[in-house]
Amino acid sequence: MSASxxxxxxxxxxxxxxxxxxxxxxxxxxxxxxxxxxxxxIGPNGAGKSTLLQILLGVLSPESGVASFDGRLIxxxxxxxxxxxxxxxxxxxxxxxxxxxxxVAMGRYPHLGPWxxxxxxxxxxxxxxxxxxxVLTLAERWLSxxxxxxxxxxxxxxxxxQEPAVLVLDEPTSFLDIKHEMTTFELLRRFRDEGTxxxxxxxxxxxxxxxADELIMxxxxxxxxxxxxxxxxxxxxVSGVYEWPVSIVxxxxxxxxxxxxxxxxx
Amino acid sequence: xxxRTRLLWPxxxxxxxLGAITVVALFAAIRMGAVSMSTRALLDALSAHGDPAxxxxxxxxxxxRALEAALVxxxxxxxxxxxxxxxxxxxxxxxxxxxxSGAAVGAVISVVTGWSLLCVWSLPVLAFAGAVLSMxxxxxxxxxAGRRLDTRVLLLAGVxxxxxxxxxxxxVLTFADTESVRSAIFWMMGxxxxxxxxxxxxxxxxxxxxxxxxxxxARPLNLLAIGEPTAAYLGxxxxxxxxVALGTATLLTSASVAVSGSIGFVGLVVPHAIRLIWGGDNxxxxxxxxxxxxxxxxxxxxxxxxxxxxxxxPIGIVTALVGVPVFVWLLRRPAAGLTE
Lengths: 266, 340
What we know:
heterodimer, A: alpha/beta, Rossmann fold, 6-stranded mixed beta sheet, 4-stranded antiparallel beta sheet, 9 helices, about 30% helix, about 25% strand, globular, B: mainly alpha, ABC transporter involved in vitamin B12 uptake, BtuC, 15 helices, about 75% helix
């Protein structure tokens, strides 16, 4: 397989159990995550979405199975090289007294030695990332003075400053209002159109259906379905996995949209 | 409160300013004391000219004492900044891993057994040994809780080991004579009265490589201050960085405690003050804290030995009397970002 058609990630029978847990959080998962597309992991709380992302990122190592990125075992990737290839927007960071520019500049750390100053190309990458995420005007503000939506854009800019081929986002729009949620997904779509591979975990099924090319639906650590939103999101499957009856209505763009029913009409 | 609360100074300007303040503090501290002297006489004495008595006071007593205060101030401020980044806790300070209590156990043993009277080096050596042993115990407990070093467990282990050691100290002191209790308590509050060129040299030898190691870790420390997953995603070997940085900062603290006792608030207040003025980027914070810590402790020691006339105050009293109000003010500052 040539480098361009090879999937970004390839998992075969990957299983992971958290310390002391009886049931594996990720159970014999086999899947391919394609290059150059937007793939969304969906599934109820505790389905294994975050654990799967951490295995993708090499933070957790599977107890069995084969997990590879770019044709090479993830465990064989040095952390620094992985940081050149994958930009991450994680959840739940603390926010010490750093300016927006300092936070975005951290995206260049994997490219620099311990005593090396930022070169012209680093500063260019930082400015470009800030401008794309519309945070240039906030550059000298402290992160703690920004709104939730602005902070999320700063983290996205940091990931972009890494100039990665792949972006991984864990619940990128939780706690965001409609405007910031839409801005984030529109930005991600644009990055995808430019060739960046995007992988995200989300609870927002409707936006996942509208923006993602591929959905991976997880439940109890297992893959329930993969494919296009239209093929994955059937009323029967969503109702079963989320344990709540739903109807599917068609979005004008053709994406299936989930409409949870009232308790009374269950 | 303006949104733009940070002063945008280049690092060289910050270091120049703080360096100048440190030098002024050193000169002022050496001039102050029971025997006052002119700047001219001080400069003569520093180059071993002029009145022999003044030369002895300056070169034999006040200069090593001021230098020791400067080195300890640097060590504590840099350790404090490192612990705050690693533990992601603004209240972290150099003694959180029980180092000061461990050192105190060693010092108390030395005082109570009378060894400190037989050999001047028994106290600092035992104090250093106590500090290092307590650090190893805290690490051991933290590792026994899991495969990785969880900084929350480390912090808890530090607190409980510290409490346990304090209980041992009081147990020993309960059966000790009054004079031993008095010297032990004075040691615990910290003092530079026993400063010598030899202790300055030992501290300098510990400080120089430690500062180089910690300054080189400034970038990974920035990432760890945000979160360990983020640091890993940005290419840091998280476990290795934590162990090296914690070990270096703790050894630095142990060396300081061994020569001068535990001096509170320097490691807490100085890094926070620098952060509030110039931000939390450790590439600037660590060197600035090293200089500011030196200037702060040199000034505090000058006050400690002069304000009460012939009675020398324990330096811990001066740093706490200055440090606590400053810290309360820091906590109340809305832009401090200490509340989440």
